[in-house]
Amino acid sequence: MNYFPDEVIEHVFDYVVSHSDRNSLSLVCKSWYRIERFTRQRVFIGNCYSISPERLVERFPDLKSLTLKGKPHFADFSLVPHGWGGFVYPWIEALAKSKVGLEELRLKRMVVSDESLELLSRSFMNFKSLVLVSCEGFTTDGLAAVAANCRSLRELDLQENEVEDHKGQWLSCFPENCTSLVSLNFACLKGEINIGALERLVARSPNLKSLRLNRSVPVDALQRILMRAPQLMDLGIGSFFHDLNSDAYAKLRTTILKCTSITSLSGFLEVAPFSLAAMYPICQNLTSLNLSYAAGIQGSELIKLIRHCGKLQRLWIMDCIGDKGLGVVATACKDLQELRVFPSAPFGNQGAVTEKGLVAISMGCRKLHSLLYFCHQMTNAALITVAKNCPNFIRFRLCILDATKPDPDTMQPLDEGFGAIVQSCKQLRRLSLSGQLTDQVFLYIGMYAEQLEMLSIAFAGETDKGMLYVLNGCKKLRKLEIRDCPFGDTALLTDIGKYETMRSLWMSSCEVTVGACKTLAKKMPSLNVEIFGEGEQADCYVEDGQRVEKMYLYRTVAGKREDAPEYVWTL
Amino acid sequence: MENSVAYDKDLNMKDTELRLGLPGTEKNEKEETTLSVKVSNKRPMIESSKDNGSKTSDEEAPPSKAKIVGWPPIRSYRKNSLQEAEASGIYVKVSLDGAPYLRKIDLRIYGGYAQLLKALENMFKLTIGDYSEKEGYKGSDYEPTYEDKDGDWMLVGDVPWDMFVTSCKRLRIMKGSEARGV
């Protein structure tokens, strides 16, 4: 029973913003469901195959912002064959047909064709923001369509996409009267761009706050751009390669002094050694620094730069910083909340950081809550120390380059170390494991990781019990991805109801058989159970006893999908 | 007999053993073999999974580095960028006085002067002495020099490594009396 008129309830609902809270509102009663669906403007769909585009559009006619994720996470690491799915076109088509006034589209791991981009650009008069992360399938022609047709475009943000560069003039396609740009990120484009067009675009975009350039933008152009846009807050430098004695460099040093609003710095896709000193004047303002693509910066220079960055909250770097360098980070960056250390030589034998660097960080950076750490080795003692020093971890992802390496000091598995992490970090939502691990670590995870939503496992465990500890214990688990572990049919089938409470389960190179997958699919019609191999035809899986190479299952209300390629067998 | 045992130990025969892996990688190799057996093809997986928990293979593993698909877990975009960066090395010619032809090396792969000089010694089968600011290279007939951006011939080792890498256009190992003059 409602004692308030709808308008009042709508007004109250305006204050409820998070997706999960809005979802909860819609479950209270029929009239709240109705009011909620007509006022809902932002929708997040973590798996694009969990619901059909038509159903989305029907339920939320006032939709303004849509976030979609496509391929499973392990697709990022080449574990999903080409053509698996995640096509955005049907979504854009459905939205266009329905006259929804879409303003924002954020996509991750989806296949985006030029046709989709063209349709998008022509269908929504008020379209403002396009964010593509780890997507593929489009070329600079698609970008040209967006630039040309989206009259009120505010944001074009391309992060780590595979874009075919036709070396066209896509940047020149922004019309002269387009002055609304707030954010432009094309760092991932490989090709040349029209520098003059870029400079003119920046000059007529007074609201531009975020600009991330690609490699093809030279230092002299950078300097001119910074002159035009001293209001920039987020800068991604393309090329920083130049002669230290040149005029261009001298001019740049002066211009940088004016850029007092820059709090986020990234890029340096090409760097001249000893040139980073030009950045020192703005380092003190930086809260975010991403040098993880700056292969040209030597460890010593990196350390010198970071010494100036006392306010840093987010730091993404490569492991050439070394353990000692991480010690410097620990003393200089007391406010650090997120740290990512990427490998500079992923297939080499010597990772440049070890457990020592991580321990040093944990001692200095007590506010740390997100970690991605690629290292050469890890010890239980170190993890136990880190757990004690930093109990606030929300995300903890550790990747030992040698995937099954034990504790080098004791030759023991890393069960105790990770056990300490989950026991101490009560707010932990995401965990990635590596190193030698037995079933014991999963016992700990099941026991202690009460808030865990996403778990990534590789080359770990001994028996089905490991997986069962996790499925039984982690009540909030949404995504579980497992590769190369000895978990089989018993683990898969013991608690099948669990999968309806989760977004998805990925298992590859495990011990699961075709028969078990069939059983699961039959008992749980609300799940899509897909199995596929290395690009082979689906009918190679003839016998029930055969091991499944890759299995991906997810809950859905959309039924079996129509766009699966030949090699995917939906059971 | 005792003498010969001591002789072996002193010589550290392992160092001169012909292997394919990088030095100091024994422990890793054993684990890698277990992994490579696991991932090479599908059918044998069922048998080898029994080895999964017990990493006790005692055989001397063939020192090949098995690349596991999707490991380490970094995005293909990032991986490709790294590979492109690696490909763009700084190649310079190296000439040795009296040698019939020149060689080329990528300065980017060396962490510093020590590694560079060792590489040159290996490449040309010679010994370069020890560097000191006062006396240049003492203890041998050879002195490493380089041509910098301004066209001047400089002694290798005076400036910081990073500066050397960006200003070095070519290397010349000078020999004998000419070298003395520096």
Task: Explain the overall architecture.
The complex is a heterodimer of chains A (571) and B (182). Chain A is an alpha/beta fold. In chain A, 32% of the residues lie in helices and 19% in strands. In chain A, the strands form 2 sheets. Chain A has a 21-stranded mixed beta sheet, covered by helices on one side. A two-stranded parallel sheet of chain A has the order 5-7. In chain A, helix 17 (439-448) packs parallel to helix 18. Chain A is globular. Chain B is α+β, with helices and mostly antiparallel strands. Chain B has a domain at 91-177: Ubiquitin-like (UB roll) (Roll). The longest helix of chain B has 14 residues, at 26-39. Chain B contains 8 helices and 7 strands. Chain B has a 5-stranded mixed beta sheet. The A-B interface holds A 74, 76-79, 134, 160-162, 188, 272-274, 292-293, 295-296, 298, 300-301, 342-344, 346-347, 349-350, 374, 399, 401-406, 432, 436, 438, 456, 458-459, 462, 483-484, 486, 509, 511, 533, 547, 549 and B 21-22, 25, 28, 31-32, 34-35, 38-39, 42, 45-46, 49, 52-53, 55, 65, 67-79, 81-82, 85-86, 162-163, 165-166. Chain B: Its main location: nucleus. Chain B: Residues 1-66 are annotated as: Disordered. Chain B: Keywords: Auxin signaling pathway, Nucleus, Repressor, Transcription, Transcription regulation.
